[in-house]
Amino acid sequence: MTAGVLLGLSLFGIVSLCLVQFRGGFDRYDTFTLRADRSGLVMDPGAKVQMHGVQIGKVSRVDMTDGSATLQLEVEPKWADLIPSNASAEIKATTAFGSKYVAINVPTNPSADRLHPGSTITSTNVTTEVNTLFESLTSVMGHIDPAKLNATLTAVADGLSGRGAKLGETLTTSNQYLSALNPHLPQLQEDFRQSAIVANTYAGVVPDVMGVLDNASTTSDTITQQEKDVGGLLLAAIGFGTTATDVGNENVDGFVASNDHLVPTTELLAEYSPEYPCLLNASVLGGKVMNNAVAETGYSLTVDAALLLGDNVYEYPKNLPKVAAKGGPGGKPGCYPTITKDLYPTPYLVADTGASIADSTSIKPNHNPDLLQWLLGSTPGGAAR
């Protein structure tokens, strides 16, 4: 009796151990939590958990929490160490009516950190089921009048009846257009992005634009109030334009001739135009120096001036005019640097003009006629020079 009982207990224990082992009772799993809007109709404990198409665990529990589904996932430790911390999950179906399973998705740029046991994974979507589609379709159909739907479908059928060839041609042409457009989609997307930047720029200046429009409306109101005066101004402008046209037509040849005569003058002014800034700047600087020296000191300046004898009398051909002066940076008209203490004494330019290059303070022989020569015209020493 005792031997039979022991044998029975032994067989029962062996069968129990086999069943527990078969159900994974001795396996160790890392547990994770998956939250989703819904789990689907055919999501039961024991459903597969896959990653890259390989089963790495199972669903151990399905609960409802605050209107959403909470799934407890059991993943084998050797696979759990391969799940990055930024992984997501989807609840998919093998077929339209098949059972659901959980698919772990690894992003393109996976995180170096691993997903720790007990972490929560968020589901990105749940595969749409046939019953859900029917439910949505039934909800839509419940808000549509069957008579109106029938009339609409009849109108569409009548419109398409006998036009299959044209419709097919239209679809073919559209396909050709889209095929030609596809290579340019990256550029089109870039244009849209740039358009968004431009739109944001315009959005930033909208208050200023609205202010301008507001001011323009005020100006238009003022013009409307002064309509008679504006009309008179326009009539006067028309009359002035007519008169100016008549004057211009009568003197067009004179205008052309005047412009022709101005060409040499303007060319000369253009040639020496680099000197104008020097002249103006020196004038301003000289004015400041005079203000500092006289005008702003509170004192007056007394000058004792007298006329001195000038250069020698004109002699022909010695004193014929000579126009050969050249100078400036590079031998052209221009500006020299501002005179400072480092450039003292001030440099000067000797030009070929026929004038004496002697210093203005040097003693020069005076060849002016004396009083007798002015009165008598000649002296025993010879004719006046």
UniProtKB/TrEMBL annotation:
Name this protein carries in UniProt: Mce family protein
A biological process from GO: biological process involved in interaction with host
Ranges for domain Mce/MlaD: 29-105
Keyword terms of this UniProt record: Plasmid
GO CC terms of this entry: extracellular region
Record's keyword annotation contains Transferase: no
Domain Mammalian cell entry C-terminal intervals: 112-329
Lineage: Bacteria, Bacillati, Actinomycetota, Actinomycetes, Mycobacteriales
NCBIfam families from the UniProt entry: Mtu_fam_mce (TIGR00996)
InterPro entries per UniProt: Mce, Mce/MlaD, Mce_C, MlaD_Phospholipid_Transporter
Xref: PANTHER family: INTERMEMBRANE PHOSPHOLIPID TRANSPORT SYSTEM BINDING PROTEIN MLAD-RELATED (PTHR33371), MCE-FAMILY PROTEIN MCE4A (PTHR33371:SF19)
